[in-house]
Amino acid sequence: MITLDNVHKSFGSNHVLRGVNLHVPRGSSMVIIGGSGTGKSVALKCVLGLVTPDSGQITVDGKPNDKGDRDAFLARFGMLFQGAALFDSLHVWENVAFRLLRGTLKRPRAEAREIAIEKLRRVGLKPDVADRFPAELSGGMQKRVGLARAIAADPEIIFFDEPTTGLDPIMSGVINDLIREIVVEMGATAMTITHDMSSVRAIADSVAMLHDGVIQWTGPVAEMDASGDPYLRQFITGSADGPIEAVR
Amino acid sequence: MTFLAAIGASVLSLLAGIGRVAIYALQALSHVFRPPFYGREFATALLNIGWLSLPVVGLTAIFTGGALALQIYAGGARFNAEAVVPQIVAIGMVRELGPVLVGLMIAARVTSSIAAEIATMKVTEQIDALVTLSTHPMKYLAVPRVLAGLITVPLLVGIGDVIGIFGGYAVGIGTLGFNPANYIKNTVDFLEPFDIISSLIKGAVFGFLATMMGCYFGVNSGRGAQGVGRATKSSVEAAAVLILAANFLLTGVFFSI
């Protein structure tokens, strides 16, 4: 469904992506792992068109992501950002229903609010949260609101950018379980980037490791531990010794 | 040679910057006439830029009008021209001080606020989130604010002009011993309709420049707190300089003999 074919991207002299090849089948959950600064977020943003690759091609259902109706393309996606990226000036429910209050999916405010409260309930938040502002919520609650916003318009494809960063282990587990449940229940295609191995094991059908601008290893999550790839082994064990330089 | 190269590089960098701002401004203006339109964001911008700027504009104008009356009286006394206080306060406020001071107060209050807000949205990925939610950041963030600046700043200038003249009147009557009826008559008789029209046109131009600089520097801010701070500072500097330069040009166009 989503294919990256020899994608390159540089920022000045920093060559972040040096020929990324990746295929994410429809309805599967792919997790991209890799150290900080290896280009995981850039790869995700290239798919969405937030960053334009220098070369290579990205297709979604066989169609290039930079051609055709941009709004219709983006309407197929939901995204949970690393810091939730909630709009400070809007109430929680307005954040969740943002897509339902404007554009082609616009609905009456009362109906949009009902849907937002239902989505908040789905991610484990009570309706009274709806009328608060994002700044009044804890980090874990903000992530849940971000998740509710990502699924509000029932997208076919959902991206999760570091979904458990900054959360305690218990809340991380809750968010991981929620993501897995929602992806399965919606039948959505999911791409997650993380360096949290507990997230990988909870969320992934398949795993791709990005290192030095290329996909170093990819395969089913069940084969990850026995892969024998020294880069992947070092990343899983978190060892300072191995082919990945500990100081970057 | 190195010195000349450095000057050349600075000039080229400046011209490139002017070009980028001009392109951004033209893009923003082109989006004003194309749907979708964000009415709630426009209403919020009208409130923030117009209504909530009234106290600072009013206080600036009344103190400036009062000080102007005192200065003109003291200066005029050197050649027995104390009686021209009402006329000079009126013309000074309406033609120059009203628009310029309101413009600069808007640059301080509104440009900084817009730049800091949008820059913070950028560093916290809120602008990327807008895009993924099929919302054009320029339409959602820039157009409502620029349009609100174009509409409300001329109104603020008009109000500032009136309050400034009133400041001069209060000082003239309370301290300088002018006759109230004569003061008002001299003010009204001396002002011409074009003085007021030029003042409002200046207000519209300054409102456009102030809001545009806030949006431009906010959207193009660097990373982190330092990036937000730099964007805010640069936006206010650019807005203030452009307002003063535009004022000089407009005054030349309107009143050159």
Automatic annotation (TrEMBL), chain A:
Keywords, ordered alphabetically: ATP-binding, Nucleotide-binding, Transport
Source organism, top-level taxon: Bacteria
Keyword Iron: no
A single GO molecular function term of this UniProt record: ATP binding
ABC transporter domain: residues covered: 2-237
PANTHER family recorded: PROTEIN TRIGALACTOSYLDIACYLGLYCEROL 3, CHLOROPLASTIC
Name the record gives this protein: ATP-binding cassette domain-containing protein
Organism, scientific name: Aliishimia ponticola
Lineage of the species this protein comes from: Bacteria, Pseudomonadati, Pseudomonadota, Alphaproteobacteria, Rhodobacterales
Automatic annotation (TrEMBL), chain B:
Transmembrane found in the keyword field: yes
Superkingdom field: Bacteria
A molecular function GO annotation: phospholipid transporter activity
One Gene Ontology CC term in the entry: ATP-binding cassette (ABC) transporter complex
Keywords: Membrane, Transmembrane, Transmembrane helix
Segments crossing the lipid bilayer: 49-70, 146-176, 196-217, 238-256
Zinc found in the keyword field: no
Name used for this protein in its record: ABC transporter permease
Species for this entry: Aliishimia ponticola
